[in-house]
Amino acid sequence: MIAPGERAGGGGARGPAGRTATVDVVIPVYNEERSLPGCVRVLHEYLSEQFPFEWTITVVDNASTDATHQIATALAEEIEGVRVLHLDRKGRGLALRTAWGWSDADIVVYMDVDLSTGLDALLPLVAPLTNGHSDVAIGSRLAAGSRTVRGPKRELISRCYNWLIRMSHGAGFTDAQCGFKAARTDVVRPLLEHLEDDSWFFDTELLLLAEHNGLRVHEVPVDWVEDTDARVHVASTALDDVRGLIRVARNKASGAAKVAELPRRPDPAPIHPDAVLARRETGLLWQILSFALIGVISTAANLALYALFRTVWPLLVANFAALTITTLFNTEANRRLTFLGTRGSTGRVHFQGLLVFALYYAFTSGALLALHAFVSHPSTALELFVLLVSSAIGTAGRFVLLRGWVFKHTERKASA
User: Is 290's pLDDT higher than 60?
Assistant: First the structure.
């Protein structure tokens, strides 16, 4: 076993200060007596033969009730470069927070004991962290170039969850919960103090806080094969994840998600002394054209969804469901394309965006109710026409409110 402060493993890649970068690969385990020996031996062989940095393998046993701890201890005594950390309380997030905070390495890594992610992605995961180009790195099963083998149920749940993260928080990463992540220790330590989840939402919360605080998250496409013996109960964690997304949104709104101790990445600046800098187009003409194009697409989607939902739901319910879905798309598209001064997502923007959505919904729903007040049994075509006209008027109102109220402060900051 290796105590904190001792180094293990091979490799001699030197950082800018002439010092060898050190990497701690953490494997959290709970009742993994069957999988642990094979994982440690395969990982140890790969690190010894192909990994260019100094490394340590840390097995974190978080309250296993089988022989996992005894097996881990035996492996640490037998294999050089392996150490064991035992916790009396269960929780994958707790295991990572404890191990990463305890580690003395320059870079901390996390991977699942089932080795579902191909190890050839480990060096691309770590490399951008060693030179400071990125702060956090994640493996992604949904990035271009990834290849995955998994069942349809888990595939659907994963894609829906990551879509929800992007729509609700404006996240730039594609896969929050792939068990293959790394971070610079000097950056992740201040974040750990602000992470509240001790279970499976830990990964998502880490990434949301990292992006919210301006850190650079690097994505690596991976080869990933599902282990059906994994301890993850995907469907049962969905509700906890949704609660976590709401909690993080509240923390953003209150300012609790800001981490003052983090090192700040400087703004982009030209290297060439005679560079002629481009300007980001953020004028009124660009905003009108971009907003109009996004509005046409979202209005068409809204009408299609309303017509679909109206076959089974009352008009107000159908309108609310269609508007909720298309508004998520519309707001995120405008954040990324129309109002280019916006970076990330803030509680103020989310709250004001909800108020704008409420006004838009009240206006379009009022138009539909007025139609039914004057016409006893209007046709679906007439309903769609009234919805189209009210949506066009409401969209113009949304533009005025978004530009003059929701994104006004951000635009000033961007042009300053």
Answer: yes
Residue 171 corresponds to which amino acid? A
Q: What Å distances lie between residue 214 and 135, 189, 345, CA to CA?
A: 10, 15, 11
- Per the listing, tokens 């990834």 go with 146
User: What is the tens place of the pLDDT at every residue in 351-394?
Assistant: 677 788 889 888 988 999 999 999 988 888 898 899 889 988 98
Query: Is residue 197 annotated as a catalytic residue, yes or no?
Result: no
Phi, psi at 109, each rounded to 5°: -125, 150
Catalytic residue among 135, 175, 198, 203: 203
pLDDT tens sequence across 45-74: 999 999 999 999 999 999 999 999 999 999
* Averaged pLDDT, 276-281: 63
Q: Answer yes or no: is pLDDT of 141 > 60.
A: yes
Q: Tokens representing 374? A: 């004057």
Residue 379's Cβ-count burial label (10 Å; 0-12, 13-18, 19+) is exposed
Whether 410 shows a pLDDT value over 60: the answer reads no
